[in-house]
Amino acid sequence: MHTFLTRGNALLTFTLSVLAGLTFFCFLSTALNAYSATANIDTVKVLVKNVPDYSAQKEKQDLGYLMFDLQADLNPLFNWNAKQLFVFLVAEYETTDNKLNQVVLWDKIIQRGENANLDMKNMNTNYYFWDDGNGLRGNPNVTLTLSWNVVPNAGTLSIIRGSGSHSFSFPNEYTNVRAQ
To answer: CB atoms < 10 A from the CB of 135, how many?
Structure first.
């Protein structure tokens, strides 16, 4: 005859095995979803300054400033397995020192049930657009793209890049005025 603890252990093990199997099948039901959407991005104001970066070296480095418009309908990305979206705007550019530079300029967390239709005008960036040198002034090809992580209830956390991007160039001269 089995003891009470042995029977409890067998019941708990069986229950956890069934739950793990159900979770795996839940993951499989949405594993092949594309999670794609189109984003329309435009820059409104673009400036570049040469200011000292006191957090690193005391040398002057380029600081980009921009305002942007963003339109994207992310509602189709939500299904029963999508708990939230982590949406972020990335600037990519090339300098003589680095082949690929990527800077996250703006982000937002959208919970399931919230409005995921983004229609933003004249938005400021959430984060500073620092370059680790002087690679922003006159840079002819800076590309903005919208990407997101779909945070599932069960499954993998993937990074998806939205279709649609916007390329712009920084001015050839530094500005001395405060960005407004």
So the answer is: 20
Instruction: Please state the pTM of the whole predicted model.
Output: 0.86
CA atoms within a 13 Å half-sphere pointing along the CA-CB vector of 42? 8
Q: Note down pLDDT in tens along the chain; length 180 residues.
A: 689 999 999 999 999 999 999 888 888 888 888 889 999 999 999 999 988 877 766 788 889 999 999 999 999 999 988 999 999 999 999 998 889 999 999 999 999 999 999 999 999 999 999 888 888 999 999 999 999 999 998 888 888 999 989 999 999 999 887 655
> What spatial distance separates the first Cα and last Cα of the chain, rounded to whole Å?
79
Three-state SS for the chain is CCCHHHHHHHHHHHHHHHHHHHHHHHHHHHCCCCCCCEEEEEEEEEEEEEEECCCCCCCEEEEEEEEEEEEEECHHHCCCCEEEEEEEEEEEECCCCCCCEEEEEEEEEEECCCCCEEEEEEEECCCCEECCCCCCCCCCCEEEEEEEEEEECCCCCEEEEEEEEEEECCCCCCCCCCCC
Give the separation between CA 16 and CA 108, rounded to whole angstroms.
35
One-letter amino acid for residue 15 of the chain: T
Cβ–Cβ under 8 Å, residues 173 and 134: no
